[in-house]
Each structure stands twice: as structure tokens, then as C-alpha cells.
Design goal:
This protein is an alpha+beta fold and 357 residues long. It is 43% helix and 26% strand. The protein is built from eleven helices and 14 strands. It is rod-shaped and about 140 Å long.
């Protein structure tokens, strides 16, 4: 007679202990954790945080169901939550996420971020949803206060995410001349002049990596084609739950103009000092040359060559005298082109009161 073999009874102690440990771990989490069985439309697993947030009480008993969850979602957000859930169940999707307003039992409205994974059977049919829900109220409040602070800032501020503008404050718009709708979603390098784009991109990245701590300068063309000098710094931040970059943007064009005028004044002062020194140092030797030239004047008995050389000497002495006179009357800084792209002092323009150079 054939007997049925017997096997030792399986010891499920370890499995049970692991399950209990996981349950305790889940209950200690600050996030709400759940598993939703699609066929039975029930929550097959949930931690204490999920129960405390999404259950409703009826006759002294806590009830957790899709209806109770929906009642805790703001009425204006329910349709988008349903749409996100339905989209995640499509064959090509295996996950989903949504942010919505949560109606707390104490009357407060909070902001929740729900992220889930869709579990499918071997045939690809969805059988369960496993998710984590995090309270993002503090982050939303921080972002709101942060945007308010930079909105009122006297410095141009912007936020870049995915290589495009996500936020610009009024001062940034004033500096660039562009409206908000003309900036959001565009490449920040578009307004940077071509000669500076590579340098700006490299400096920006170094700033985000904390490899550079000093502000950098470059030129932009505003909406109206005007060139403006910009001083910029950048830092890495979190914006709407993702990594982003915050830039501080200052128009230093007036400062650059003042610096340019200061350098021009310094150059003029240098030229005036040099001209005065040249005029003084050459004037005395010139007088000696003039005196000697007079004594070397040819007599009627001298030949024609002597008269020609003396005339040439007198002509150039007079030319030197006029040049020294111009040096002594220099009133402004002016230059003219020279060989190999160089520039030299333009004595005629520098000593002319009517010159605009």
C-alpha cells in the first residue's frame, strides 16, 4: 500500500518575526505607508501614520477605505488625484505621484505628496498600489516665504531648474527689461552676450559646486538691445522638492561707467603731468638751440648750401617750438591709432578745446 510522505511542519517563526519588525519599523515612520488591493478595494497594509491621517470615525470606530481617504482630500484637488491614479494604472506606467491639499481632522489644511508604485501580475494587470505619503506643508510654507523675500529684494533674483528660468523677481525683470512670461521656461544664457557665455556657464557651475566664492562679471543685452554690466553669484537650493539654482543678479553698469570715468581722469592727469614735464624740460634746451642757430646764420659770402641748411634748421626749430607749446596746452586725454593696432597720444586733439575725443 502506497503511503503519502509526511514532512516536518514548517517553522514560520522567523517570517512572523520579520513581519512584526517591518510593521514596527513602518509605524515609526513619519511618512504614511500603505498598500491598496485593487480587486477588493481595501487597504491590505498601512502604518499608524496612514491610519491616523486618512481614517474617519463612525460610532466610535475608525474606518479606513477609499471613501475615507477621498474625504480628507480637498474637494478642488480630488479630480486631479483620481486622474493621476488612473494614469498610473495604464499599461505603460508603473508608478505615479501627486501633490494635493489635505484636510486635517483639526481643521488645518496641509500639503501632501503621494508617491506610489503599481504592482502587476505576470500578465501585466495591476493588482495593488504601494505608496508613501509625505507631509510637505513646511516645505511649501518655506518656499512661499522664500519667494516673498526675494520678490521684495532690491537685488535681481532668479531660480533655474532644468536649465530654464522657473522664477524671476521684479528687480530682475526691471534690469533685463523682459516680462515674467517672456523669461519663464527660457534659457538663461540667451541674454548673455556671446563673448561671455562660456565664461558665465563655467563660473556658474563652479559656484554651484562651491569651487568659487567670488562674484563674477559679464555683459548682457537687455530687451531693448542695451549693453549692461552684471555682477552675479549663484548657489544650489531645493525648489519644489527638486534641486535648483538660485542666482543673485546686480546691474553694475553705473559703477562701470564711474570706473571708466575715473580711469579717464587718471589718464588725463598722467598726460597733463607728462606734457608739463616735457614742455618744461625741452623749452630750455630749445632756447639754447635757437640762440646757437642765430649765431650760425650764414653771411652773404656763404654758398647756397649753407643758406638751404640754415633755412631747414630754422623751420624745424619753429616746428619743435609749436609742438612744445601744444604740450603746454594739453587739457584732455585723446589718442589716435598707431602701427600694429596700438594707440598713441594725439597731441593736436589733446590740446584742442573743441575736440570731443
Amino acid at each position: 500500500m502506497e503511503t503519502t510522505p509526511t514532512y516536518p511542519k514548517q517553522d514560520n517563526t522567523i517570517i512572523r518575526l520579520l513581519s512584526e519588525d517591518f510593521k514596527q519599523l513602518a509605524d515609526r515612520s513619519q511618512d504614511a505607508i500603505y498598500q491598496f488591493d485593487i480587486e477588493s478595494q481595501t487597504f491590505s497594509f498601512f502604518n499608524q501614520q496612514f491610519l491616523s491621517l486618512y481614517a474617519i470615525e463612525e460610532n466610535g470606530v475608525k474606518i479606513l477605505s477609499p471613501k475615507s481617504v477621498l474625504l480628507h482630500i480637498h474637494p478642488n484637488d480630488r479630480d486631479k488625484v483620481k486622474a493621476a491614479s488612473a494614469l498610473s494604472l495604464q499599461p505603460q506606467n508603473n508608478s505615479g505621484e501627486i501633490e494635493y491639499r489635505f484636510l486635517h481632522a483639526d481643521g488645518a489644511t496641509r500639503v501632501m505628496h503621494d508617491r506610489w508604485t503599481v504592482v502587476r501580475d505576470p500578465g501585466g494587470q495591476p493588482i495593488a498600489i504601494e505608496g508613501f505619503i509625505r507631509d510637505n506643508t513646511w516645505r511649501k510654507q518655506f518656499e512661499k516665504e522664500f519667494e516673498l523675500s526675494i520678490r521684495n529684494s532690491l537685488i535681481g533674483c532668479y531660480i533655474i531648474q532644468d536649465a530654464t528660468f522657473k522664477y524671476v523677481n521684479p528687480e530682475f525683470m526691471r534690469i533685463t527689461g523682459y516680462r515674467e512670461d517672456e523669461l519663464i521656461g527660457t534659457d538663461p544664457l540667451n541674454m548673455v552676450q556671446h563673448a561671455y557665455r562660456r565664461q558665465v556657464n563655467e563660473n556658474f557651475i563652479k559656484m554651484l559646486k562651491a569651487e568659487c566664492i567670488f562674484p563674477y562679471e559679464f555683459c548682457i543685452s537687455d530687451k531693448f538691445g542695451n549693453t549692461k554690466w552684471i555682477l552675479e553669484t549663484a548657489t544650489s537650493i531645493q525648489y519644489e522638492g527638486r534641486r535648483a539654482a538660485l542666482g543673485y543678479f546686480m546691474d553694475i553698469s553705473k559703477g562701470k561707467q564711474v570706473e571708466k570715468e575715473r580711469l579717464a581722469k587718471e589718464k588725463l592727469l598722467t598726460v597733463l603731468e607728462l606734457a608739463g614735464a616735457v614742455g618744461h624740460e625741452l623749452n630750455n634746451p630749445l632756447q639754447v638751440v635757437l640762440t646757437c642757430a642765430e649765431k650760425l646764420a650764414p653771411t652773404p659770402d656763404d654758398n647756397e648750401r649753407s643758406f638751404r641748411l640754415y633755412g631747414l634748421l630754422k623751420k624745424n626749430i619753429e616746428k619743435m617750438r609749436k609742438i612744445i607749446h601744444k604740450f603746454q596746452n594739453v587739457t584732455q586725454y585723446a589718442t589716435k591709432d598707431y602701427v600694429d593696432g596700438k594707440k598713441i597720444i594725439d597731441i593736436d586733439a589733446a590740446s584742442s578745446k573743441t575736440s570731443s575725443k
